[in-house]
Amino acid sequence: MFGICNLAVIPLRLEPSDRSEMVSQLLFGEQFELIDRQKQWRKIRLHFDQYEGWIDEKQFQELSADEYQALANLPIALNGDLVEYITYPPNQLLPITLGASLAFLKLEEINRQGYSFDGQIRTGVQPKSNVLETAYHYLNAPYLWGGKTPFGIDCSGFTQMVYKLNGYSLLRDASQQASQGIPLSFIEESEAGDLAFFDNDEGKIIHVGIIMDDNYIIHASGKVRVDRLDHLGIYNAELNKHTHKLRVIKKII
Hints:
This protein has helices spanning 65-72, 130-135, 155-165, 174-177, and strands spanning 2-4, 9-13, 22-27, 31-38, 41-46, 52-56, 61-63, 77-79, 83-88, 92-97, 121-123, 148-149, 152-153, 182-184, 195-199, 205-211, 216-221, 223-229, 233-236, 241-251. By secondary structure, it is mostly beta strands. The protein has 2 domains: 2-123, Roll (SH3 type barrels); 130-251, endopeptidase fold (from Nostoc punctiforme) (Alpha-Beta Complex). Strands 15-16-17-18-19-20 form a 6-stranded antiparallel β-barrel. It has a 5-stranded antiparallel β-sheet with strand order 6-5-4-1-7. The mean pLDDT is 97.
């Protein structure tokens, strides 16, 4: 069985409970495979990044295998504005956030409610120079563990969504993203749009950000913010200290 998110944003939880940790979110239009069931909860595997978790069965629309495959064959099309609206009869509005998936609107067999959209749509692979422009859309978004929207986002959700909006695929967690791309030996080899990863005292990758020009980095820590980057890691001038220890720099694009 398969499904699609037909609400603006819903939580993806670690366990089948409203009290369970939110590990990620589904945005409007994201499709997935249903892989398990417990009472009113469904365990799913997202199509885009294969991430797994539990959602409430009242918060999605079921798809047939044929509908799921038809949607998978379409090019990705995403909302390019911070907030926009889907309209549907009779004169109803559904707010959606930056990065919501809109490809299914073309498929009448899936778009059963008659949704329509008149806003900006992002499709295709964009130049690497567009990555930072997209990243600034999330500037000052509050940090939210598992979040993927301008109203709350975590470090790897931020990098994943920025890359997705420019036509590139990243895995969901920072440790997973660190397995992608080509490692660089020095900061001087990097360019704007590359990813920097940071570890804890045990050597586990726990943080990621997007490198900017002139030794700056944009990342989600408390909020999406811009800080200095050097060979030791991220230096927060407000706190007058390094807050994250640099582990590796990766060129994805």
